[in-house]
Design brief:
alpha/beta; 9-stranded mixed beta sheet; globular; Carbamate kinase; 11 strands; two-stranded antiparallel ribbon
Length: 243
C-alpha cells in the first residue's frame, strides 16, 4: 500500500547561502539542480509546494549597510532583487526536469515574473505547479524568513521547512562548539527564551500565532526532505504550545 505524505501543502524556505554551495558566493548550478531534484521528488508524491528564496549569496543587506555604508532601505531592496535572481535560477532548474513553475514577486516586474497574488498562487499549487515567492515581502526592514512565515499563513501551508546547511537547531553554535546539542523538538517560546537565531522574532511570532510548525533540516543530505514530508523524525521541529 502506497504511503500518504504527512503534509499535503508545504512552504520551503531556501536560503541564498544554501544556493551558493561550497562556492560561498553566487549561484552554484550543481546545488540548484540538486535542490530542484529534491523539490521534484516531494512534488511527485502529490504534495503542493511553495518556495521562498533568500538572496544572501548575492547581496546581504546588513553587510551592505555596515561595510559599504548603503542606506538601509536601499540595501534591503537590493537584497530583494538578489532573491529574484535566485528564484529565476530555481525556476529554470525545475522546468528543465519537467516541473511547471511560477515565480511571483512582491515587487512588480511583469517582464520576468508574476506579481504576488494570493489567490493566484493557491490556484497554481492546486493545478500542479510549484510557486516560487521572491523579493521578500516587498518591504524594507523585513527578512525573507518573515516572508516565508507570512506566505505560509496566506496560502495555508501546513508547515514551514527551513532548508539549511546544518542538521537542525542547536543550543549553541555547532561550528564554534563541538559539544553543541541538537534540539529535536521545542516550542516557539523556548526558542525565543534561548535566543536561538533560527528565524527573526517577527517570523517566529507569525508562525506561533498561526500555529504553523517550523521544521529545520539539512537539505544537502539526500533523503531528509522526503523524510520530513512523510512525518519521519529529521532535523528540529519548533511548534506552538498546546492550546
Amino acid at each position: 500500500m502506497k504511503r500518504k505524505p504527512h503534509y499535503t501543502r508545504v512552504l520551503i524556505k531556501l536560503s541564498g547561502e544554501a544556493l551558493a554551495g561550497e562556492l560561498g558566493y553566487g549561484i552554484d548550478p550543481d546545488v540548484v539542480v540538486e535542490m530542484a531534484g529534491q523539490l521534484k521528488q516531494i512534488f511527485d508524491c502529490g504534495v503542493q509546494v511553495a518556495v521562498v528564496v533568500g538572496g544572501g549569496n548575492i547581496f546581504r543587506a546588513r553587510t551592505g549597510v555596515k561595510s559599504a555604508g548603503i542606506e538601509r532601505t536601499t540595501a534591503d531592496y537590493m537584497g530583494m532583487l538578489a532573491s529574484v535572481l535566485n528564484g529565476l535560477a530555481m525556476q529554470d532548474a525545475l522546468e528543465k526536469i519537467g516541473v511547471q513553475t511560477r515565480v511571483q514577486t512582491a515587487i512588480t516586474m511583469n517582464e520576468i515574473a508574476e506579481p504576488y497574488i494570493r489567490r493566484r498562487a493557491v490556484h497554481h499549487m492546486e493545478n500542479g505547479r510549484i510557486v516560487i515567492f521572491a523579493a521578500g515581502t516587498g518591504n524594507p526592514y523585513f527578512t525573507t524568513d518573515t516572508a516565508a512565515a507570512l506566505r505560509a499563513a496566506e496560502v495555508g501551508a501546513q508547515v514551514v521547512i527551513k532548508a539549511t546547511n546544518v542538521d537542525g537547531v542547536y543550543d549553541r553554535d555547532p561550528k564554534a562548539d563541538p559539544e553543541a546539542k541538537l534540539l529535536t523538538r521545542l516550542t516557539y517560546d523556548q526558542a525565543l527564551a534561548m535566543c536561538l537565531r533560527v528565524m527573526d522574532e517577527t517570523a517566529f511570532t507569525l508562525c506561533k500565532e498561526n500555529r504553523i510548525p517550523l521544521l529545520v533540516l539539512n537539505m544537502r543530505k539526500q533523503g531528509n526532505l522526503m523524510k520530513a514530508i512523510y512525518g519521519e523524525s529529521v532535523g528540529s521541529t519548533i511548534e506552538a504550545d498546546p492550546e
